[in-house]
Design a protein that fits this description.
472 residues; alpha/beta; Beta-Lactamase; Rossmann fold; five-stranded parallel β-sheet; 20 helices; disordered N terminus; transcription; AAA+_ATPase
Length: 472
Amino acid sequence: MRIVFPISNYRANPFECNNIYICMVPGEGRLMMYQTGLYEFFEEALKNLADCILFLDHKTQVIFMNEAAQNILGDLYGRVFEEVLPQSRSKDLMVQDFVPIAKNVSIGKRQFILYERKISSHVRSGVVVILRHSLNSLVGDISKKKEMLIKSSSFIPRYSFAEISSNNSDYLEAIRIATKVAKTNAGVLILGESGTGKEVFAQAIHYESKRNDGPFIGLNCSAIPKELFEAELFGYEEGAFTGARKNGKLGYFEMANGGTLFLDEIGEIPIEMQAKLLRVIQEREITRVGSSKASRIDFRLIAATNIDLYQSVIEGKFRSDLYYRLHVVRICIPPLRSRMDDLPSLIENLLKRVNERNELNICGVSGDAMEKIVQYDWPGNIRQLENVLEQAAILCDGEFLTALDIRVENITGFLGHLETESKSTMEELERQAILNSLEQAQGSKIEAAKKLGISRATIYNKIRKYGINYRR
């Protein structure tokens, strides 16, 4: 049994994250992690972090330590963590759910900040522990590229079809197709606007498949620089290029061996890389950069896009043979604006997530707030709805969100009502809105994306599209 814990916004608080997913294996512990190949993934993702990271099983015994933890604490495998660090509340966490505050602790002459959080699955629970140097508020000595790659990977799926429900006929049809294709090894192409939950479907397909004991590896293709695509997808050998890691590096296909590789925004793959990707899909073997030896791999590929991929084929931006190879089974996820009947249950689930993330106790939305939500067209879909609800929940003075708390005046919503305007006018408005948001966010693209209710990948694409070069 594997337990998943999300870590996001790592710089500010390691437990406020959405994008780094760590798993642990209670019971069999380290041995099972070796048998399934997960231990190598942990070491790959965590060995360069300066923070000490430990995983405790349901008895609060240590079952995993990264290199930093071993160097500072020694070998604690099998030991009860509170015996090593009495300030820990790991045993209390196993008895009742609460969010312990970060606390300062001393280990020898060193000062650390202790973070702990309970993580649970349907049958097992455990605790993840992070010890951060008091003077080190960043993620150790790690390059921006490495950080981006770690954030783009998740090893174990968080969703199954049991957690996906709807009253919308188109959405139910998408679930029906996904459920049937999950039992096969067929390739899947998921289509949908940004924020509709394409990765949720990809994870559910993996969870319901015969490959669910293997890893689920997710990669957003728009986040990889063009010149790094081959090395990141296929891996590289030691000395393959200047700056290459001493012992080489696993590629994403190798990491997904025995499991599922999810390539989001597949349309962003450079045209010169598409032939190599097609060959890997057809031959089921990869050759690392700097090597002449081909290695067999066993994987399932799920791709997703928010653009008209066939139009890209017509325009010569995407290979037709790759398109048809990916297009074995197509799943179309409808936008939120066509799922208004699902809003009450969606809002309930999203508010639970918002409450947990921010330690709030918002009970729901008022009638006038619901009316305002229903009238909006939500061009940013579920992701935008969650952002708006989170902002409202944080600023709300009561237990229920009112219409005054729901603020949806942003560029995507505004543009959605400008159907009569020319394309050039709309693009200029969009460009100006992005510039305004960057100004308000002091140049932070992530914060600007949040203000606009769009994904980080989308704002990067828009910045490239409009040639925006913002410098504060």
